[in-house]
Amino acid sequence: MDSEGTKSPYVAGGTISIQLRGSFEGQTAEATILKVFEPFTLSCAMVVRLSCSDLASKGEMVLKIFDRRFASQLREDQDASPWTPDIEKEYHQFAIEGGASSFTAKLNSKDETATEQADTQNDSQTEAFLQHLMSESYDTEVEVYNTLKDIQGEYIPQLFANITTPIAIDTQASTASPYIDPPGILLQYITGFELTDIADCAPKECWQSIGEESIRIVNVIGDRGILNEDVKRRNFIVQKQEEDVYKVFMIDFALCLFRNEFEDDAEWDQRKAMQDEEGAVGYVMQGKLKGGFTYHRSARYEQLDEDWNMEDGPKRPRDG
């Protein structure tokens, strides 16, 4: 984004205002941005420290904001024009006049015209569509964290709070804020390295145990009725705790499906077999580490392969 006005407000050293939700409803806080995780893809993630909040004592946290304006991969995937203040101004007026709510209602009702006419959508309708997708991603991630409440802080980060980032430029926009303001979450900040960097950050004799622990976490989560369509090595943080002792955490759950969305066990198992979440870690690590890691496929996935006639084995996932 070239012009000064279209640059993201999420920069190290900057400060943004957030409104806390849930058990902290009504509280506002200033979040000082210490570090950003770029490029922004389907959300904007950064390390922050809060002031004037019951959560300030938590220290550094990860703030993940589902902001359609600067989610570059989302906009590219949906062929949306680069965001500009003018687009936003028009969209706010569209939302205030009820256009965003009615358009979103069509999307929620599965009205095919709302998505089939993407080529004829104006910028405001496109922004409403992007906001809808961001809201769905936010809802999914929150549902995953709530489902996995008992393993927060152990295998996944702890979820501290849900938030909203107010960006309305008109006081009249308050009633339209669900269609304008980006939602987000505050998470435990896990320091460490991505699983993609294991060869540079951990001794070779630890690769096998780290990889096996990553696969175990995938299966623990999968056993809770969650199917993750975005299992990649970059979604694991490995934390060194002492000499040659490492702890693994899994992050990023916006692209998940749930067992209750499927008609029966057969449909669910078929989708699990095709997605092959376990292999998305195991096969890729085995290929990348060239003898430093051996993938032992679990009995659960061997059974899925057999049940769903994966004669040549499951598809080998591409890493990202």
Automatic annotation (TrEMBL):
<protein>
    <recommendedName>
        <fullName>Protein kinase domain-containing protein</fullName>
    </recommendedName>
</protein>
<dbReference type="InterPro" id="IPR011009">
    <property type="entry name" value="Kinase-like_dom_sf"/>
</dbReference>
